[in-house]
Amino acid sequence: MKTIDKIYINGAFVTPHGQEMFDLINPATNQLIGQVRLGDETDAQLAIASAKEAFKTFSQSSRTTRIKYLQKLHDALHKRIDDLSAATIEEYGAPVSRAKASTEMALAAFLHAQEVLYDFEFERKAGRSQVRMEPLGVVGIITPWNANANYICGKLATAISAGCTVVIKPSEMSALQTQVVLEAFHEAGLPAGIFNIVNGLGNVVGAELTRHPDVAKISFTGSTAVGKTIARAAVDTMKRVTLELGGKSPNIILDDADLSTAIPMAVAAGFMNSGQACIAGTRLLVPETRFDEVKELLKHAVAATKVGDPTDANTAIGPMVSVKQYERVQSYIQSGIEQGAEVLAGGPGHPEGLEGGNFVKPTVFANVTPDMKIAREEIFGPVISVLTYKTEEEAIAMANDTTYGLAAYVSSTNEARAWKVAEQIVAGRVMVNSLQHDPMAPFGGFKQSGIGREYGTFGLEEYVEPKTIIKG
C-alpha cells in the first residue's frame, strides 16, 4: 500500500498542516491501494504566498525562458510516462488504451504550449496606443478525477506561457497520478514557487483558493454544480474564471449517413473514457426512417465492446471511478426503465463475472423522449439514449434543447450538409464525421457548460490581461 504524506510548496516536498487521510481505492477490485494526507486552508494559504512571491520575478521572465521551462517539464515527465499510465490504470481504472492516450496528451500539452507561445503577441497596437498583454497573477487550478494529469499539465503549461504562477488542487481521488507528475516536475528544476501542489478536498483547499484575495484566477474543470459554486465565490474578489463544465452532447446521424461507419463511431463517442467524459456523445439522434437499421447496428457494436480488466489491452470500458459513481449510473439506468425507455443493450447491475469492481453494463436505451431524465441530465457513465427525429430541422432543435453546450457530433456522407448542420448547433465544439481532438483550437462550453476557453491562443488569452498605454 502506498502512502502519500507530502504536498509541494515553494520548491519542496513538505508535510501538510492538514491531518485527514483519504483512502485510495482500485475501482476494478474495490481494494485499498493507498492513502493520501490532505492539506487544509493553512496549506493552501502557504502555497498561495509562495506563488505570490514567485510571481514577482517570473512575471517578468522572457518568452525564451518560459519556452525552456516548458521543455524541462516535458522532458522530465517523458521519463515517467509509463509510471503515469500505470497509476492511471490502477487508481482510476482507465483501460490501457485510454490511459496511454491520456498520458500522451498530458505530455504533449507542453509542446503545444510552446508552439502557441512562439507566436503569441504580448505587445499589440490599438489606435495610437500600445497594449501589453500582462500575466494575471497567481492562478488556482482545480482538476477532475477523470483526466487529472492531463488537466494539470494543460493548465500549468498555459499558465507558465503567460507568466503566471500557480497553486494546483488536484483531485484527491487521483493522488497516485498526481505524485508521479509532481516528482517529475520537481526533477525539472524550475525556480521555487512557480508551481505548488496541495492535495485536499474541494470544499477546503478549493474553497480557499476561490476566496483568497491573492489568487487572481481560477481554472476549474468539473461538474456544472461545483462550477457555479466557484463562480459565486470568485465574484467577491472579482477573480477571472475559466470553467470547463458538464455536457449532454448530441450526436446527430443524418439520413444519408453511412451507418456502418457512423454507428460504431457513435458508440465510441458515447462510451469514451468508460462514459466518464464531459464531451461524451450520449444523446444519439437518428432519423425515424432508419431507426430499425440503427438499432441492429447498435446491438452489434455494443456486443463487440469489451468491459472488464483495465490492464487487458482488449478492454474498451473499465470500471466507474468509485462505488458512489457506480450507484449514480445505476440510478439513471433504473430511471430510464421506470420512465418507459426500451433497454436495447445492457441494463442494471454488474456485467457477469465483474461483481467485485464498479463495472457497469454498457447500456443503450431506445425510444427515449426528450423529457426523460436520461435524455436531459449528465450521467457520466456508459449510457446512450437514442431519440428519433422526422426532419433535419427537428434534429437540430432537439440537439439544442439542453442546458448544456459543450460538444456535439454530426455524421453524414455529404460534408457540406453536415457542416451546415454543425453551424446551427449551440456547442463549443462540433465534430463532423470524426472524434478527433485539435489541441490548437479553443475548447469550452456554451450555456451551462462553462465560461472561457482552453487550448491554443484562445486558452492563453484567458491568462493575460490587456493594459493600454496611451502616448501623448
Task: Quickly list its features.
single chain; 472 residues; alpha/beta; Aldehyde Dehydrogenase, Chain A, domain 1; Aldehyde Dehydrogenase, Chain A, domain 2; 2 domains; seven-stranded mixed β-sheet; 15 helices; 21 strands; globular; aldehyde dehydrogenase (NAD+) activity; Ald_DH_C; Ald_DH/histidinol_DH; Ald_DH_N; EC 1.2.1.3
Q: How would you sum up this structure, described in words?
A:
- This protein has 472 residues and is of the alpha/beta class.
- It has 2 domains: 2-245 and 447-469, Aldehyde Dehydrogenase, Chain A, domain 1 (3-Layer(aba) Sandwich); 250-432, Aldehyde Dehydrogenase, Chain A, domain 2 (3-Layer(aba) Sandwich).
- 41% of the residues lie in helices and 21% in strands.
- It has 15 helices and 21 strands.
- The protein has a 7-stranded mixed beta sheet, sandwiched between helices. It has a 6-stranded mixed beta sheet with strand order 10-9-8-11-12-20, sandwiched between helices.
- Strand 13 (250-253), helix 9 and strand 14 (283-287) form a beta-alpha-beta unit.
- The longest helix has 24 residues, at 96-119.
- The protein is globular.
Estimate percent helicity.
Answer: 40-55%
The name CATH uses for the topology of the largest domain is Aldehyde Dehydrogenase, Chain A, domain 1
Q: What is the CATH class name of the largest domain?
A: Alpha Beta
Largest sheet: 7 strands, mixed
How does the helix and strand content classify structurally?
A: alpha/beta
What's the pLDDT, averaged over the residues? 98
Keywords: Oxidoreductase
Family: Belongs to the aldehyde dehydrogenase family.
GO molecular function, one term: aldehyde dehydrogenase (NAD+) activity
Pfam families: Aldedh
